[in-house]
Amino acid sequence: MQLQQLFSPSVQHTLDVVGIFVFAISGALLAVRKNFDVFGIAVLAEVTALGGGLFRDLVIGAVPPAAFTDLGYFLTPLLAALVVFFLHPHVERIQTGVLVFDAAGLGLFCVSGTTKAYSYGLNLTASATLGLATAVGGGVLRDVLANEVPSLLRWDRDLYAVPAIVGATMVVLCLHYAVLTPLTSGLAAVTAFVLRLLAMRFHWRAPRAWNRRSTVTEE
Amino acid sequence: MQLQQLFSPSVQHTLDVVGIFVFAISGALLAVRKNFDVFGIAVLAEVTALGGGLFRDLVIGAVPPAAFTDLGYFLTPLLAALVVFFLHPHVERIQTGVLVFDAAGLGLFCVSGTTKAYSYGLNLTASATLGLATAVGGGVLRDVLANEVPSLLRWDRDLYAVPAIVGATMVVLCLHYAVLTPLTSGLAAVTAFVLRLLAMRFHWRAPRAWNRRSTVTEE
Amino acid sequence: MQLQQLFSPSVQHTLDVVGIFVFAISGALLAVRKNFDVFGIAVLAEVTALGGGLFRDLVIGAVPPAAFTDLGYFLTPLLAALVVFFLHPHVERIQTGVLVFDAAGLGLFCVSGTTKAYSYGLNLTASATLGLATAVGGGVLRDVLANEVPSLLRWDRDLYAVPAIVGATMVVLCLHYAVLTPLTSGLAAVTAFVLRLLAMRFHWRAPRAWNRRSTVTEE
């Protein structure tokens, strides 16, 4: 369990809450766009911010999950929902700023998710997979509840999962070679963060299946 | 665990089965409307009736969940599916009656869900949240499986979650002040029930985000 | 736990990996049809292949689930995703062959899922239900993520769940009468397999609700 204390507990908690807040903003904005009411905005904020970590905690057997034991984790998305409820035109206007924070959340969550899974005894591959799930799972649940194809899976979106995979992989390599420190895990988070920013800036996208045009009809 | 015995076990079990039955009816009716076959009707009845409690049990670590250990809980939705399969035009005709029973289920489940979560050691906020999830979770899963936007989140539906939130909040207040008795929890369930009936009667709705029309395109 | 050793461990593991592979192929093919990128193909392959077993393991409290502890289970869907990524026109061409393998996966998973649930102490009904969920759950998750109505629930698809229900029921009957051996469980798997093949060959379908045309509008 010591592994979780990469940073001092208060620093780690602050980073978590920041990540939760920015993910919640993205959920609340989608809810506004889908014309949901204030309750729907709050639900989508909660699910987006806490869904990935909830899935990870159920899989590793950390029940009740942190989402239900830490009051700060629960209240932060409600605050984000309120901000979006009253100020969403302003939040929309700073959409780029929101995406930068979302990229920061992605970096933080892939590192903390991987570390927590490993501290519960999962092997390196499973830990990295759960780190990825922690980072992107909330967004997938958000899109499923909003009845949209998860933007994570669409080819016409800039790379989102790959930066998280790189960050999670750096963490498990550090774990394997016993060099995981606040510095190296900070480096992994920053790498994922910067890769995501670059993917947005240069519209990096992943390839689709080979020869698909010849045989598959566009939908 | 004593907390769960608010009513005599047989009374509690009967109330649970009634709530499961009416939720299952709503799932089965949606399946008929979506043109599913008899198996799809049964699946949607099961998921709607047991999904909320299943989620709660996974979160609090009560495995295997009650949905899989109590044969009565499992068979009741199948009975509801059969009723809808053969009699659905009649069930549709008494749609208002079904909605009244569904409101009763909402009241019962938000109380029993909150109480069970608290008895597993969760804090008051988390208990109320899980009580809400118990009451509305099955309906959300029903809509996701039917590939529709969850009616819970739509602004153009009468208040559904708010009555459950009020009921769950009353339960945690009673727990906090150590005055949870069959009487007070019955009162909480009835309050949620009556609020839902009033919301349907007067079409109470929750507000959407401020100024949304000015900046967001309707979909 | 001895019950799980119906076959020698290596035989059982091989059968599991075969089932995982063919389910992953079906997920990857849907991802190509939905125009997902290579990452989306991999995710849908993983979810389709491992989702049913993951749900079963969470319900019976077998955490961390096998999907996260067995590296072979995790890597097999990635292999299937690669095959589809490069060769999908060829895989599409042998669609019938894929469906035959998928039917084999259905037979294998309903038997192994039922047996594992029973070995964790669930009653016979719950074990059969989880066997069914193991066999069909991945496909449901696949369709939900692809934002489609689960083909499992649609009336216009050949019977898929019923063969799995028959297989799972045979297993619990064998468990009840203490005659579950490699032979009888193999027989249950083959029965489910053959029933599914017959359902595809003769387009067997389940009935929809009685009198539905008279009162329900087609969507």
TrEMBL record, chains A, B, C:
The chain crosses the membrane at residues 12-31, 38-55, 67-87, 124-146, 185-204. InterPro entries: Gly_transporter (IPR005115). GO terms for cellular component: plasma membrane. Its main location: membrane. It is found in: Cell membrane. Residues 14-88, 100-174 form the Glycine transporter domain. The keyword Hydrolase does not apply. Keywords: Cell membrane, Membrane, Transmembrane, Transmembrane helix. It is a multi-pass membrane protein. Belongs to the UPF0126 family. This is UPF0126 membrane protein. The lineage of its organism: Bacteria, Bacillati, Actinomycetota, Actinomycetes, Kitasatosporales.
